[in-house]
Automatic annotation (TrEMBL):
InterPro entries: MetI-like, MetI-like_sf, UgpAE/MalFG_permease
Name the UniProt record assigns to this protein: sn-glycerol-3-phosphate transport system permease protein UgpA
Localization (cell): Cell inner membrane; Cell membrane
A Pfam cross-reference name: BPD_transp_1
Start and end residues of each ABC transmembrane type-1 domain: 97-309
Keywords assigned: Cell inner membrane, Cell membrane, Membrane, Transmembrane, Transmembrane helix, Transport
Database matches in SUPFAM superfamilies: MetI-like (SSF161098)
Family statement: Belongs to the binding-protein-dependent transport system permease family.
Transmembrane regions: 37-56, 96-120, 132-155, 233-253, 293-313
Keyword Nucleotidyltransferase: no
Membrane topology of the entry: Multi-pass membrane protein
Subunit structure comment from the entry: The complex is composed of two ATP-binding proteins (UgpC), two transmembrane proteins (UgpA and UgpE) and a solute-binding protein (UgpB).
Species this protein is from: Rhodobacter lacus
Amino acid sequence: MTTTPVAPAASPLARLRRWGTRPPAPPAKAAQFANPLAPWLFVAPQLLIVAIFFYWPSVQAVTSSFYLEDPFGFGSSFVGLDNYRDALASSEYRHIAGFTALFAASVTALSLGLGLLLAVKADAVMRGAGGYKTALISVYAIAPPVVGLIGMMMFDMHIGPFTRAAALFGWEMRVGIDYRDTALALILVAVWKQIPYNFIFFLSGLQAVPASVREAALIDARSGWRRFRDVTLPLLAPTGFFLLVINITYALFDTFGIIDVMVKDKPANNPITLVYKVYLDGFKGNDIGGSSAQSVILMVVVATLTVAQFRLIERRVHYG
């Protein structure tokens, strides 16, 4: 009489590895159109919007950057690369570029970190989860200028609650007058505005983690930090990479309304970003050529950062 050997049961970690290395699903069948022009008709409105509001202004900016424009529109003189040389040789421009880099890095890191922390905590809430999530998400519906107005009230030297709280520790905050105090207020307000956006995506990514994977990780590792680091965080890598690109773009461009409200008409030399300097030089100083050159430089910097992120970071992200 022969006995059939029984294969040992697979460990939870082995089942988790098999789940992560399972073959991809077969690709979905592509949609077929009877008329070959039908797909272009569907995307034509979006292409028209992109051409009018992005490509045409970009071409105009590049063209204007090589000219010295008359502020009253009576003519222009070709100056070649002089506008670029003046911008890059300016100590003020380099100082603003340094603050822009610090501002973008701080806003991106803090908003991503706090958004992920709140998403992890919200994902573990059992009672009252709906109200908790709604309270966190509702801030994203506020327009940036309104956020700047709220931030200005919070950091007001006379009635601001944050200013009064800082005074308890002997710190006299003078937002709008002191450079460092204003920079800190701008960063905190910009982070507060962006946290709900990151929270939404991180929470969706956490809820997409299969229950079987969570159970296997719970058996394999007792430490909650180890489970988050080895299982949850790698599964959130695609979401995190997407949010990294979005948050850098937000810090460089979408914070314009916040900065405009909080530093406009203030008596001191307050911190501003490169996109706000483009606005000041172009619309306040009537230097169309110089502001166009600055916008082209900023566009090249953002494009370089995006390509670098996809080249260096995207390779470490695993999809599927």
